[in-house]
Amino acid sequence: MPNVLVFAEVNDGVLHDVSLQCLSAARQVAGAGGRVSCLLAGHGVAGLAPALVAAGADSVAVADDERLAAYVTAPFAKAVGACLDANPADLLLLAASTVGNDLGPAVAAARKAACAVDCDGVAAQGGTISLRRAGYDRKVMTTFVPAAAGLVVGTLRDGAAPAPAADAARQGAIAPLALDLTPAELVSKVLRRDVAKKTVNLKDAKIIVAAGAGVGSPDGLALVRELAQALGAEIGATRAVVDAGWLPADHQIGQTGATVRPDVYLACGISGAVQHRVGMMDARTIVAINSDANAPIFKIAHYKIVGDLKVVVPKLAKLLKA
Amino acid sequence: MAINIVVVVREVWDTRDLSGSVLDGAGAVRAGAMETRFEPEDLNALEAALRIKDAQGAQVTAIAVGETRSVDVLRECLYRGADKVVRVGADPAGLDDQALAALIAGAIAKAGPCDLVLVGTAVPDAENSLLGRHLAAALGVPAVSWVDAVEEVGPGRAVAKRAVEMGYEFVEVPFPALLSMGVALLEDDPRAPRPAKAMLKLKMKKAEVPVVSPADAGAADPAALVAMKVATMEAIAPRVIESQQVDPESEAALKGMLDAVLKGE
């Protein structure tokens, strides 16, 4: 049975929920005979190790180092490499985040390992590890296998594996990992971060009203906000709306934002680029309002309203209040 | 002093408006069903390089692997203002990013000194977005991925604006360095990417494109370098969505929709 290493990503002191999903995928791949180990790397993160044991790790290596305070590829890749040298693994799993999709390929490149990112699933059959990934605008599911024996690296999309059930009674070894970093590994520096604090919980929202570039202005957004209030919904946004400064980044849904699965998703002025769609296409019911009848969002919408959102959105709000 | 920038460019299948199946009965990609296009994130990388050239002077070299299918991305680079192009004379079909990176790294080394390598982060048709990382490893240079903009260039370093969850990071890397670019610049700036210039088209139409062989690039048998291979490809059944049009003029229709949606029907 394969041994699996999971990289536990930490953002602002919180374990990434997809890293926890990776642990449940790892547990499944490792089966009864395989070992699941975990690397916890960062600064001031050691306290999170027991949560990883509870979520399914047999052992946790903790690299708690002030030089790991911000994510930079080389020192983190060194930490993963040190882990793999100490405990050889057949599979390395990471979250398909901007950290995991950077770190996983970096480790693979350094070790000439097989790698696939943004995967929808991982399996081990007859000693061969395979990774599945949707490509061609999510029209084709490709299964990858390594060309030769050795390490396989995969990053998993949100939802590719279920969240593990935490068991506080599980036992696992927690040990520090010493890092020997050379000056050459510390040449890249994060000068500053411009990252929003999380104030909304889009993932657990039952109804989301989301604004796209089509809202056109803060005034347009105010109409969307009013509709969200009438529905008791959270407000989501596309990257364009966040970049325009109309909503903070914690409202963003899509590839570099949240992945959501609400009961109802009301898309206002969203064209539906694939970067946004991957974050919301699993909503149970999708309502789209857009003035462009050919907008790609209509291809996945259950209810299509072709019209000016500045007219339609207030009408809907009024109907709800009536 | 003007810096040397290499941009890696790819011609990829355009899957955006594809209707029907991508695959034929045997599970192979139906080539005739799709057009190709200039990989949009590579086009963004080219635009970023040309902006650096406009602002402070730079020698921009574009590199591609393989023969042109229908969009000659190297000539498109020349038409937009690249100074030099190099084609690696190998068929990219069946090669993974590890093998491609070895070929491109060899071609970059042959092209002369290089301060900055720019490449698109993701490729929508090829199945992995690892080229930047593998290329950085092959070149032995630091790299930053998900770069939406090059904030500062030189002397001897660049500052990249990197997209992360919930915001941005500004990362400084010393030269030589590699940046994997996202599409944000193209999406947010209506002037980007710049169009081909008629004058450059006339001038560059017949320009000779030098070809570097795999052996010259130090990877005579690139297929031997492949680490990850495709086992199977299966069509994903299109999601059948019972979809209905709602008349925005009709209050009754809108009300009916709201009732249905909120009841979870």
Which helices and strands appear, and what pairs or packs with what?
The complex is a heterodimer of chains A (322) and B (265).
Chain A: E1 4-8, E2 10-11, E3 14-15, H1 17-30, E4 36-42, H2 49-54, E5 59-64, H3 73-86, E6 91-95, H4 100-111, E7 114-119, E8 121-125, E9 128-135, E10 140-146, E11 152-156, E12 173-176, E13 189-195, E14 207-211, H5 218-231, E15 234-237, H6 239-243, E16 264-268, H7 274-277, E17 285-290, E18 303-306, H8 309-321
Parallel strand pairs in A: 1-4, 1-6, 4-5, 5-12, 6-11, 7-11, 14-15, 14-16, 16-17, 17-18
Antiparallel strand pairs in A: 2-3, 8-9, 9-10
Chain B: E1 3-8, E2 11-14, E3 35-38, H1 40-56, E4 58-65, H2 73-80, E5 84-88, H3 97-111, E6 116-120, H4 131-139, E7 143-153, E8 157-164, E9 167-174, E10 177-181, H5 184-188, H6 198-204, E11 211-212, E12 228-235, E13 244-245, H7 251-263
Parallel strand pairs in B: 1-4, 1-6, 4-5, 5-11, 6-10, 7-10
Antiparallel strand pairs in B: 2-3, 7-8, 8-9
For the record, the CATH class of the largest domain in chain A is: Alpha Beta
The helical percent of chain A reads: 25-40%
Largest protein interface, residues of each chain: A-B, 87 and 76 residues
Q: Summarize the amount of helix of chain B as a percent range.
A: 25-40%
The low-pLDDT segments of chain A are none
| Main sheet attributes: strand count, strand direction, barrel closure of chain A | 7 strands, parallel
Average per-residue pLDDT of chain A, rounded, comes to: 93
Task: For the largest sheet of chain B, list the strands in their spatial order.
Answer: 9-8-7-10-6-1-4-5-11
Q: How much of the residues of chain B is beta strand, in percent?
A: 25-35%
Q: Give the spatial strand order of the biggest sheet of chain A.
A: 7-11-6-1-4-5-12
Tally of DSSP helical segments of chain B:
7
Reported for the largest beta sheet of chain B, the result is:
9 strands, mixed
Radius of gyration of chain B: 22 Å
Shape of chain A: elongated
Oligomeric description of these chains? heterodimer
Which structural category fits the helices and strands of chain A?
Answer: alpha/beta
Q: What is the terminal separation of chain A in angstroms? A: 61 Å
DSSP strand (E) fraction of chain A?
Answer: 25-35%
